Amino acid sequence: MEHDDFFERNEYDESTRRIGQKYHRSLEPTFISIEETQTKMILEGKTKRIGQDSEKTIVDEFWKFYSQFSSTNPPDQDKYYGDSAAELNMTILIREFQKYYLESVYPVSYPVPVLIFPHKSTKSNIRPPAKYFLVGDTHGSFSDVVKLIKHSVAEIEKGFNEGYDVKVVFIGDIVDRGKWDLHNLLYIMAFNLKFKKNVLILRGNHEEMSISANYGFGRRVMEHFSEILFASFCHLFKDLPLISISHCDNGSFLCLHGGIPILINPESGEYEVPLLNTYPFNNRQVWIDEMDPISQQILWNDPILNYSPESSEKFYDSRRGIGYTFGEEVFRSFCMKNHVDFVFRGHQVFSEGFHKDFDDRLVTIFSASDYVKKKIDARFVELDSTNIENYTIRRIGDLSG
Ligand SMILES: [Mn+2]
């Protein structure tokens, strides 16, 4: 398979590091007082007050606004919902989203950022079958996001009538690259808040301050709006979980953006894989440099390129400027230690929209058809909880919308 590694090389280079340091310094006072700043802004906006009712209305308003578009009729690249009130509305949506993740998503996984995403009914012990839709990097490719959301909503309704559950996981990298990234993010956030039990957003390496300041999103937000709004988004990104784990009838699968993390013994050079439910994660940081190494690698690692099953390659330093590439032994010991059978991830571009490694148990999925002037056969994964091994890799192009 052809692999486009051009844009992945040295993504976290010296200039990105410097930009990270610069924004971390200049935005740090805002990060500390972000909630006060937001509240002040909302109150000064006067037309919208904080409160249950107006927050619900805001979600509905964003949902209604984005539902009017289609893949052939996208929103204006440079115009945002509510025009002059856009920044205020976005701030309220951010607050609502963060409140939901902190109050309802994090407690399930605290203190480990592994989200158990079961499809078991809490009201009874009967476990309905579930259809999972796993989405890779969307990077501001609005036409794909519209199709995925419309398809998911139709499936949620169908499942409700026919007795199956629907779970949609966005595996990070919603922002940057594509010019519709802010629209993408707002639409996916509104979708998530509208269908709380069905949708989950995981963090990608682009949902982070230094990367999003350097690869499009931050610049767009600061040009159209303000540094404070950019700080608000960075503050929200830190609260996205890193991993979801789902238990199916015949095994478990895990979703994460980058790859399998390792701990290297500095003396022997030998590696160890972490046990997820005991590792002391420090992932809730706006800046990658302040995270622990395992969190950093979950966002950044890749499998070894063109790995040969006959080889015994273990790991290398990544050319991305951060993290490692890992081989089959690392993958298998991680899966065994953490009781996982399959891993679905994004992070890498393949013109076919997907790539399988390690006996088809590690699946890379890319869901943006329009990526930095390259045409990609964008894909998503459909997986049935009654038979995890029969997952299918579907074309987003085949969906209507
Ligand atoms: Mn990525």
Walkthrough of the structure:
This protein has one domain (6-398): Purple Acid Phosphatase, chain A, domain 2, CATH 3.60.21.10. 37% of the residues lie in helices and 18% in strands. The chain contains 11 helices and 18 strands. Helix 4 packs across helix 6 and helix 4 (86-109) packs parallel to helix 9 (227-237). The two termini are 29 Å apart. Bound molecules: manganese (II) ion (MN). Manganese (II) ion binds next to loops.
Short structural description:
The chain is of the alpha/beta class and 401 residues long. The chain is 37% helix and 18% strand. The protein has a single domain (6-398), classed as Purple Acid Phosphatase, chain A, domain 2, CATH 3.60.21.10.
Stretches with pLDDT under 50, minimum 5 residues? 1-6
Small-molecule binders here are: manganese (II) ion
Question: SS-based structural class?
Answer: alpha/beta
Percent in helix = 25-40%
Shape: globular
The H-and-E topology, N to C, reads as HHHHEEHEHEHHHEEEEHEEEHEEEEEEE
Number of domain modules = 1
Strand arrangement in the largest pleated sheet: 1-5-6-12-14-13
- Which strand-content bin applies to the residues? 15-25%
CATH superfamily: Metallo-dependent phosphatases
| Number of helices, counting only DSSP H or I runs of 4 residues or more | 11
Mean pLDDT: 91
**CATH topology-level fold name:** Purple Acid Phosphatase, chain A, domain 2
The major pleated sheet works out as:
6 strands, mixed
